[in-house]
Specification:
Transketolase_N, globular, single chain, THDP-binding, thiamine pyrophosphate, magnesium ion binding
Length: 284
């Protein structure tokens, strides 16, 4: 079994800050729009997973004992790329140089064919959990001990495919399955509750037979504790970790601002964003 990386909460917080800095700098150089709001809402979660929670090895990406990870909210691909670069999978400078170009492996949505280490091609919302159920079921049939994780946005959990997969995950007793939800309460152009009533959200998952943890998705200690509290993979109940997050977290003029679902940063806005991020970190 691949072991988790030995890393402290303080080191994880440093890496989350590094990820956000690099994300903003990429937005300042890329000649196009980046899904920056949702990237920032999930940056701490992806840091906790890639730097700690996932049993993975960038030097042995096909190890059959590795945990599997699916980014269901595929529009946050660049955040995942940078998280993986920090862990040693990819080269950050290459990401910056080629992101979003026609012939680049680093597309606006992840492609497993282009990028070894990426487990699934995603982008069409609502597909990550069904894919994860299939992978977890296969692992169970093979008596494998790894986990299958998927990170979803809360908006996509309005898709019927998500709840069909939730039923299947519990019916098949997939205790090796973990759904991590970025509950930032926003869609592209509105608050999520303005379009579809998701609350009582945790109770919905419990009603489908899942174990549920609710955490502050920007509290690294809470994220680590949740990952440490996962049941054995032989458990009969899948787990949902609902991460309460803020879209645009860490940049004051982006936080909860619908206009920053996606965008680009000129030189002045980039400096404002980096300064705000530094101030937020200092205050915390």
């Amino acid at each position: 079994m691949i072991e988790r990386q030995n890393i402290t909460v303080a080191e994880l917080e440093d890496r989350a800050y590094e990820l956000k800095q690099k994300l903003l700098k990429l937005c300042g150089t890329y000649n196009g729009s980046v899904h920056i709001g949702g990237d920032l809402s999930v940056a701490d979660v992806l840091t906790a997973l890639f730097q700690y929670g996932l049993r993975i090895d960038p030097a042995d990406i096909q190890n059959p004992e590795r945990d599997r990870f699916i980014l269901s909210k595929g529009h946050a691909a660049v955040c995942m790329y940078i998280a993986m670069a920090i862990r040693g999978f990819f080269d950050y400078d290459e990401i910056v140089r080629t992101y979003g170009q026609l012939d680049s492996a680093y597309g606006m949505h992840p492609c497993k064919v282009q990028l070894p280490g990426v487990e699934a091609s995603t982008g069409s919302l609502g597909h990550g959990l069904p894919l994860a159920v299939g992978m977890a079921l296969h692992a169970r049939q093979q008596k494998a001990k790894h986990r299958v994780f998927t990170v979803m946005g809360d908006g996509e959990t309005g898709e019927g495919s998500v709840w069909e997969a939730a039923i299947a995950g519990r019916s098949r007793e997939l205790g090796n399955l973990v759904a991590v939800i970025d509950r930032n309460h926003q869609l592209m152009t509105s608050m999520s509750e303005d379009r579809i009533v998701l609350e009582p959200y945790a109770d919905k998952w419990r009603a489908f037979g899942w174990d549920v943890m609710e955490v502050d998705g920007h509290d690294m200690s809470a994220l680590v504790e949740a990952l440490d509290s996962l049941p054995e993979t032989t458990s009969t109940r899948p787990t949902a970790i609902i991460c309460q997050t803020v879209k645009g977290k860490g940049v004051d003029f982006m936080e909860r601002n619908i206009g920053w679902h996606a965008g680009s940063l000129g030189a002045e806005d980039l400096q404002r964003a980096l300064d705000s991020l530094a101030t937020t970190r200092k205050d915390n």
